[in-house]
């Protein structure tokens, strides 16, 4: 049965919507009936679990497991993180909903949960970040390294990430140690939040809420990108970006008028 913690209806974009866990179970059951070759896989990853957190930990562990650390041990570590900090799973549910809301290629809830490497990389990072906060830095780096190997996404385990974040395609995303990312941001592939110089101090960008970072955007140094700002594809940002501002170019400069909800709308057209 669906977990009671996820049974209430929610309002998404003005429309009543079932939370992701009940939807995930319904879709997995239907997919197993439609594609018997995947029935065992769908039972193992979704239908055999009582809660979203349990299924997510299982899925991450199956992806991460290998000769250096088996899937069972990784699953135990993920479950420990989720039990210690329920906000990890809550953020994961918001991330999954963000993909459904913003990515027209996502035709079902099970698609990003099982197959989208941006979603899976971000959820693995959330566990690595928890490990970092517990002082288990070597294990956190192991999780970071495996994430990079598996998904082509490299996020330093010290970097805090908000909820409701979408990594679209995700290949080549790099986020440095002292960077931070606010809620409800959207990243396209090959985005870099990088540092400048060799100082061990604060050297990476701070990304506000609801920011859209276009494909190949490079944001460098201890600068701030304000809430609801938009960085055009291929831009190199070297200075602070005001809230609701669109910047483009190398180096990036303000262009066009103020943007509105660019991250949720995925609007990359500069007026």
Structure write-up:
There is one protein chain. The longest helix has 17 residues, at about 115-135. The protein is about 40% helix and about 15% strand. It is built from nine helices and 16 strands. Helix 4 (about 70-85) crosses helix 7 and helix 7 runs antiparallel to helix 8 (about 135-150). Strands 4-7-10-13-15-16 form a six-stranded mixed beta sheet. A five-stranded parallel beta sheet has the order 3-5-8-11-14. The chain folds into two domains: about 5-155, serine acetyltransferase, domain 1 (Orthogonal Bundle); about 160-270, UDP N-Acetylglucosamine Acyltransferase, domain 1 (3 Solenoid). It is of the alpha/beta class and about 270 residues long.
Set down the secondary structure blueprint:
Elements (H helix, E strand, L loop, with lengths): L9 E3 L2 E3 L2 H15 L4 H9 L4 H13 L6 H14 L2 H16 L7 H6 L1 H17 L3 H15 L2 E2 L10 E2 L6 E2 L4 E2 L4 E2 L4 E3 L11 E2 L4 E2 L4 E3 L3 E2 L4 E2 L4 E2 L8 E3 L4 E2 L7 H4 L6
Helix pairs in contact: 1-2, 2-3, 3-4, 4-7, 5-7, 7-8
């Amino acid at each position: 049965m669906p977990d009671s913690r996820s049974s209430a209806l929610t309002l998404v974009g003005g429309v009543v919507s079932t939370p992701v866990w009940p939807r995930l179970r319904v879709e997995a059951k239907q997919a197993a009936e439609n594609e018997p070759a995947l029935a065992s896989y769908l039972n193992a990853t979704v239908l055999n679990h009582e809660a979203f957190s349990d299924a997510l930990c299982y899925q991450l562990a199956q992806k991460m497991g290998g000769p250096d650390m088996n899937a069972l041990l990784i699953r135990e570590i993920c479950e420990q993180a989720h039990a210690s900090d329920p906000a990890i799973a809550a953020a994961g549910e918001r991330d999954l909903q963000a993909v459904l809301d913003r990515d027209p290629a996502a035709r079902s809830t099970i698609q990003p949960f099982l197959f989208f490497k941006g979603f899976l990389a971000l959820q693995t990072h959330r566990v690595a970040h928890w490990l970092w906060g517990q002082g288990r830095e070597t294990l956190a780096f192991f999780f970071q390294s495996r994430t990079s190997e598996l998904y082509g996404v490299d996020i330093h385990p010290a970097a805090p990430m908000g909820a409701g974040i979408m990594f679209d395609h995700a290949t080549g995303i790099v986020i440095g140690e002292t960077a931070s990312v606010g809620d409800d941001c959207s990243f396209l592939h090959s985005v870099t939040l990088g540092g400048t110089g060799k100082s061990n101090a604060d050297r990476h960008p701070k990304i506000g809420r609801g920011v859209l970072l276009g494909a190949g955007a490079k944001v460098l140094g201890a600068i701030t990108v304000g809430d609801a700002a938009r960085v055009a594809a291929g831009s190199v940002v070297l200075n602070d970006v005001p809230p609701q501002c669109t910047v483009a170019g190398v180096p990036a400069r303000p262009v066009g008028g103020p943007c509105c909800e660019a991250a949720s709308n995925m609007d990359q057209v500069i007026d």
